[in-house]
Amino acid sequence: MIPLADDAITRDEKALILAYDHGLEHGPVDFADVPASADPETVFDVATHDAVTAFAVQKGLAEAYYPSYEDDVTLLAKLNGTSNLWMGEPDSAVNWSVENAADLGADAIGFTLYGGANNEVEMAEEFRDAQEAARDHDMGVVMWSYPRGQGLKNDTSGSTIAYAARLGLELGADITKIKYPGSADAMKWACDVSGKTKVVMSGGSKTSDREFLETVETAMDAGASGLAVGRNVFQREDPTALLDALEQVIFQEKTTDEALAATSAETTSN
Ligand code: FBP
After folding, report:
1. Domain residues for 239?
2. Is position 4 within any domain?
């Protein structure tokens, strides 16, 4: 690990990564409820919010839109990804080289590793190449550590998520993105075994403002360094209100009640 390699994508050692690779990973169905979210400019605009420390997109969106936003958005280049049309074993194509991402102005790379998948070995070797190239360019490294595959009955059990977090440390990530394992104790376990590698919670499917903020608050109290979130932000009619509240919980260490009281986020559902 190179100290401070994630400086550009953190603030006060914390991160709020806005992820917008869903058009590839899940397809346009993720934009159905808020049709404006299919327009990358809409979500690039959201990514200019002060709370967002980095914006994770695939190469196509970065090439087409990032030049107009480079003064206001910190680019996290999501190098690999696979469509939901793929019916094979969990795997992720490397769609973007570190060199090209650096040329486009990215400050960090993002890379998915499916630990436990039949393709884990190849994915780990691809991660090695990307991680070492990122070091050459002083770019931060974020691992989307998502164990899955035939042998995994429960991919969000406490032991699996702690293992996912540890893989990030072992393989040289600055930040590891993990799914929420369902309890404060399990989240703490994952954070405790991550050493100097920061842990951020993955957002998951959309929930109410209060439920989402409470989960983020629990994760932060358990030792997480922030959040990497997609649907819970861009699937809202007013993403700014939730980002205002997330800023309070993540960076100002406020409670959910305090954050809801201080912002226009909803107290019930959205
Ligand atoms: P969400 O906050 O919407 O869950 O996004 C996080 C993320 O990791 C995205 O970057 C990615 O597109 C998606 O989840 C993949 O989720 P899954 O592999 O579980 O379908």
Report:
1. 15-268
2. no
Q: What is the pLDDT of residues 90-147, one digit of tens each?
A: 999 999 999 999 999 999 999 999 999 999 999 999 999 999 999 999 999 999 999 9
Rama region for 13: left / alpha / beta (φ>0; ψ in -120 to 50; rest)? left
Closest-CA residue, ligand 1 atom 18, reads: 25
Total domains present in the chain? 1
Q: Does residue 7 lie within any of the structural domains?
A: no
Q: Cβ(254) to ligand 1 under 6 A? A: no
Going from the Cα of 128 to the center of ligand 1, the distance in angstroms, rounded, reads 22
Cα 19 from Cα 86, distance rounded (Å): 21
Do 33 and 8 contact (CB within 8 A), yes or no? no
Instruction: State residue 42's pLDDT score.
Output: 98
Q: Mean pLDDT across the stretch 21-29? A: 98
**Which residues are designated catalytic?**
146, 177
Q: Does the CB atom of residue 90 touch ligand 1 within 6 A?
A: no
Residue 9 lies in a domain: no
| Residues 188-200: tens digit of each pLDDT | 999 999 999 999 9
pLDDT of residue 264 exceeding 90, the answer is: no
What's 248's domain CATH number?
Answer: 3.20.20.70
pLDDT of residue 270: 45
What is the gyration radius of the CA atoms in the chain, in angstroms? 17
Q: What is the percent of the chain where pLDDT is above 90?
A: 92
Of 20, 90, 33, which Cα lies nearest the Cα of 62? 20
